[in-house]
Design brief:
This is DUF2188 domain-containing protein. It comes from Actinomadura darangshiensis. The chain starts with a strand and ends in a 5-residue tail after the last strand. A 4-stranded antiparallel beta sheet has the order 2-1-3-4, covered by helices on one side. The protein is an alpha+beta fold. The protein has one domain.
């Protein structure tokens, strides 16, 4: 399966997908570590990691309140 990130608004509305897919979970997480600030500037509030169509986990890109 290919790993990818679904990009979402705070209310869960999808706003897109990562431009690339990844062969491993570690590669996908490394990409997020390098790009999360740019995603926030682009008004992405949270991301969901997908393994193919299966949701692995989601997380906010904002600091905890």
């Amino acid at each position: 399966m290919a790993w990818s990130w679904r990009l979402e608004k705070a209310d869960g509305r999808p706003v897109g997908m990562s431009e690339e897919t990844f062969s491993t979970q570690a590669d996908a997480e490394s990409w997020l570590g390098e790009n999360w600030r740019g995603l926030r500037v682009g008004e992405v509030d949270k991301v969901t990691l997908l393994d193919g169509e299966t949701v692995v986990y989601g997380m906010s890109l904002h600091d905890p309140e």
